[in-house]
Amino acid sequence: MIEQQKCKAGIGMTLPQNAPCALVVGLCSHGLAIARSLQRLGVEVHAFEANSAIPGALTNSAVIHYVESIKDDSLVDNLLAFRERIPSSRDIVLFPSNDNNVRVIARHIGRLRGHLSSVGKAASIRSRNFCSRATSKVGAKK
């Protein structure tokens, strides 16, 4: 796994050291949108990508970790290796960006259980902050 450090901090936000981080699998248009949204909310975002030639690989919204594949079983080994690099006091919330990622993760859920937070838990990262910002922006446009 090769790491490329390219991530801006969230605008004016400081999270506790034990705050969860996000791991987006794939920087296609969906993954890129997820990474950008989370980064804007101040979440520390990491991303796995196999193809450095796609436009999403140019983002500064995530720390990009280049891996051999995000579509086969090697993804699971890379997820577990990533878990070892992040302090155990921090949750890692996984955001697969396409059905292939979901299929691989589902096939190996037994190996991953207990190492990564569920996608459903992702909403708790910053949902209240996001909702209050969205509400204030809508109100400001009237």
UniProtKB/TrEMBL annotation:
Q: What's this protein's name? A: FAD dependent oxidoreductase domain-containing protein
